[in-house]
């Protein structure tokens, strides 16, 4: 059973139910001439075997705006390029912005699929409410992601070689001087082919527990994908990487003893047949890969817990791993806490490898998609 679900997750799930059918039946309708779409024969000239997680300019991006009425207009695809912003734009002055991350995958037969894009749409809507911003509807969001993937189809890696990372942005572009919501907003989607997120590829991560710098605090915006959550962790990340660590694991800001999340991903512990992850109480992001792995683990017979996890429990865990759209499912080889390096056994029969194998199997169509997670781009 799954225990300790937070109210944030309940809101997430209830919104998903109401929009699921509409999102899945929505067909992308290009707002520009179909001639812009790249054919399968025009595959980009890329070394697919050596893709990292680096910015690579693709062909097209999607853009639409809304003003005081809060309704986003019909968007269109434009050539990838810079956008014009007023120096007094809300996003530049007050950080009024959100972003999402999802991926398009190519299967062996050449067909292209998205993975649970409606969940990204719902998460953006929840974040927009927190940040006093209008947001696109689920249909608008999913359609924009589809259009962007189709327009950049030649950049989607072959099956098993990577994916097309799609980055939707919602930003306050209207000019504002006093502290207030911006008068205009832009919804923009761009894409980039990617491989492994971490430079060490699929090698186990080495994490450092940060005790002095905190990623988020109660009552803040740590539970939504606000752009303001990420710059504050850069210093801790830089220091950790300079000392040979892959990334930083943060503690709660009140008690300073409960683990929360890594800079760019969620974290899980395995002990016996129990899978535990920090409870989402407004200070961590409820990742879509996180939600999916919890469901997969439950299907495989694991007891799944969302709860407060003390850092001391890292010492006795059988296994630790991270999840995220960008990182996928990454095993942790060691965690350094209070000067003590905790080593974890890495083997082919790790629970996280079972979970990841099932996740990838569903994405590639090898395993039946019983939860309707996969959306084909038509």
From TrEMBL:
Organism field: Solanum stoloniferum
Recorded family membership: Belongs to the class-IV pyridoxal-phosphate-dependent aminotransferase family.
Residues bearing PTM N6-(pyridoxal phosphate)lysine: 225
One of the record's GO molecular function terms: branched-chain-amino-acid transaminase activity
Source organism, top-level taxon: Eukaryota
Keywords, sorted A to Z: Amino-acid biosynthesis, Aminotransferase, Branched-chain amino acid biosynthesis, Pyridoxal phosphate, Transferase
Catalytic activity: L-valine + 2-oxoglutarate = 3-methyl-2-oxobutanoate + L-glutamate; L-isoleucine + 2-oxoglutarate = (S)-3-methyl-2-oxopentanoate + L-glutamate; L-leucine + 2-oxoglutarate = 4-methyl-2-oxopentanoate + L-glutamate
GO biological process, one term: branched-chain amino acid biosynthetic process
Top EC class for this record: transferase
Entry cofactors: pyridoxal 5'-phosphate
InterPro entries the UniProt entry points to: Aminotrans_IV, Aminotrans_IV_CS, Aminotransferase-like, B_amino_transII, BCAT-like_C, BCAT-like_N, BCAT_family
CDD domains, sorted: BCAT_beta_family
PANTHER family per UniProt: AMINO ACID AMINOTRANSFERASE (PTHR42825), BRANCHED-CHAIN-AMINO-ACID AMINOTRANSFERASE (PTHR42825:SF25)
Source taxonomy: Eukaryota, Viridiplantae, Streptophyta, Embryophyta, Tracheophyta
GO cellular component: cytoplasm
Full protein name: Branched-chain-amino-acid aminotransferase
Entry EC no(s): 2.6.1.42
């Amino acid at each position: 059973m799954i225990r300790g679900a937070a109210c944030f997750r309940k809101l997430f799930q209830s919104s998903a139910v109401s929009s699921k059918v509409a999102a899945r039946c929505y067909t992308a309708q290009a707002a520009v001439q179909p001639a812009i779409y790249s054919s399968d024969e025009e595959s980009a000239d890329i070394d697919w075997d050596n893709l990292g997680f680096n910015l690579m300019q693709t062909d097209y991006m999607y853009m639409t705006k809304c003003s005081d009425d809060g309704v986003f207009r019909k968007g269109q695809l434009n050539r990838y390029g810079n956008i014009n912003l007023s120096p007094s734009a809300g996003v530049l002055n007050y950080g009024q912005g959100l972003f999402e991350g999802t991926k398009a995958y190519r299967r062996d037969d050449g067909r292209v699929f998205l993975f649970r894009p409606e969940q990204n749409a719902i998460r953006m809507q929840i974040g927009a409410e927190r940040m006093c911003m209008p947001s696109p509807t689920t249909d608008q969001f999913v359609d924009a992601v589809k259009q962007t993937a189709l327009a950049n189809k030649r950049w989607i890696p072959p099956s098993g070689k990577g994916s097309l990372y799609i980055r939707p942005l919602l930003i306050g572009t209207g000019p504002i001087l006093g502290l207030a919501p911006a008068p205009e907003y832009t919804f923009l989607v761009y894409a980039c082919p990617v491989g492994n997120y971490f430079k060490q590829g699929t090698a186990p991560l080495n994490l450092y527990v940060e005790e002095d710098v905190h990623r988020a605090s109660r009552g803040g915006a740590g539970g939504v994908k606000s752009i303001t959550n990420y710059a504050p962790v850069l210093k801790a990340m830089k220091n950790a990487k300079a000392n040979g660590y892959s990334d930083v694991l943060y503690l709660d800001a009140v008690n300073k003893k409960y683990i929360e999340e890594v800079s760019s991903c969620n974290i899980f512990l395995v002990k016996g047949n129990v899978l535990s992850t920090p409870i989402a109480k407004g200070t961590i992001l409820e990742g879509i890969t996180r939600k999916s792995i919890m469901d997969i683990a439950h299907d495989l017979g694991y007891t799944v817990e969302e709860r407060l996890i003390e850092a001391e429990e890292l010492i006795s865990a059988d296994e630790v791993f991270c999840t995220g759209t960008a990182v996928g499912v990454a095993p942790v080889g060691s965690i350094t806490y209070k000067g003590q390096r905790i080593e974890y056994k890495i083997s082919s029969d790790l629970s996280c490898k079972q979970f990841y194998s099932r996740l990838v199997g569903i994405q590639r169509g090898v395993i039946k998609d019983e939860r309707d997670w996969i959306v084909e781009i038509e």
